[in-house]
Amino acid sequence: MHDSNITRSSTDPRAEWTKTLFGGIAYAERTVDLTARLLAQVEKRDFVRNTYQDDTAYFLNGVAVWTIAPQQLSWMVEDFAGESLLNLTAPDTPANRTKTNSLSTGPEFTFRVDPANKPVIGARYGRYDIQGPGDNQRYAGYARWLHQLSEPEKLSLNYEVSRVNFTPPSLYPYFLRHDQFLGYETLSRPNSLIVEGGTTHIQRYGGEETKGRRARVAALHEFTSESAVRLVLSDQISDSWTDFIRGVPSATSPTTTTIPIEEAAAAPLAGSNVATGDVYRSQRGEVTYIAQSGRAGYTLRGYARRVDYVTTADQDYREAGGGLALTWDQTDAVHIYASANYLKRTFPSLDERDADRAGILGTTYKLTRSLAASVEFRFIERDSNVPLQSFVDRRVMLLLGYSTGPQYSAASRR
């Protein structure tokens, strides 16, 4: 890969060649006792001109549900490992990224009162690990009452409590969190809907209280078998661990090109993924239109988000943007793709306004059933009202990938 300005600097742009070697595995299983999905990859990067230090990255996206006693007892494990930004106001460069990992695991017990009512209790151990300060551990429990209205419809009454402990030298205090909310969902075709409404209360040890809404709407409407629109709205108290682990797909969702409503509701917004132990209020909205016809398809997406931090209030930001992605399978061997994205982010307390534009054009050619070669051109630009923050980077990438099956695509996941 060649970058014309890998430092993304307006005053000292540096061209760089990067050699990357990576390997990974994808695994899926669905049996009576175990349902699991896993994608794992190791990636070693070598900067030829030594602009940055050579590094190795790890990517993991996995979920497993072990059914110990059918309809009574199960154990879940979720894990998402990757990279996050250190500073959202700075350009996205190798120096502005750090390794992060979100883990959640624990049992769930289900008690069937009658065919329509099921009490559920569960416990979770979680941790958020950052390469740097901000690590934390969390212990959580929850109780739910599920009422089946009909085969696709159900109501739920939910209570969740969690304690979060930070590892020194973190400056964030321990806190205890309580969530109470009502839920409704109907998962059927062509219309699906998930609605949640309630409150969140956070008590910091030796500090003040934080209260907020927990509101979420996720709707999916299929116009035809080849087109659909989905809407996601949310207003909630969140943190990096919660947003990061939402990248884990449902263990029971199918592996298809269309995204099930459960994943649409959980998918984090592009544009902001910051490593922090701070708690923040997140308000976001997203609408996506998906169309697939024969060998061609496109996705049109627009979103907006507002984030207000509890402790580091000077980092509060607003962002809005959209994008268009196109795919075309010219033949069974030739795949062409293109995308254009725009993101505008403002930091009110810093009086900073950044506008990011990115364009991608690429093609993949299958040399054999398992071996493929790709060429990709990428243009990245930032306009900022802060001196020396604007930049332009042009990237060319050549990739040779081998994969034994369709579950694993050979691509960088940084």
Describe this entry's structure for a reader.
The protein has 414 residues and is mainly β. The chain is 3% helix and 64% strand. The chain is built from 2 helices and 20 strands. It has a 20-stranded antiparallel barrel. The two termini are 13 Å apart.
What's the gist of this structure?
The chain is mainly beta and 414 residues long.
Q: Order of helices and strands, N to C?
A: EEEEEEEEEEEEEHHEEEEEEE
Unreliable stretches: 254-271
Continuous helix count: 2
Q: Determine Rg (CA atoms, Å).
A: 22 Å
The percent range for helix content is: under 10%
Query: For the terminal residues, how far apart are their CA atoms?
Result: 13 Å
CA-based shape: globular
Largest sheet: 20 strands, antiparallel, barrel
Provide the fold topology:
Blueprint: E1 2-3, E2 16-30, E3 34-47, E4 55-69, E5 73-85, E6 97-110, E7 117-130, E8 136-148, E9 153-166, E10 175-187, E11 191-204, E12 209-224, E13 227-239, H1 240-245, H2 261-266, E14 279-293, E15 296-309, E16 317-329, E17 334-347, E18 352-366, E19 371-384, E20 391-402
Antiparallel strand pairs: 1-2, 1-20, 2-3, 3-4, 4-5, 5-6, 6-7, 7-8, 8-9, 9-10, 10-11, 11-12, 12-13, 13-14, 14-15, 15-16, 16-17, 17-18, 18-19, 19-20
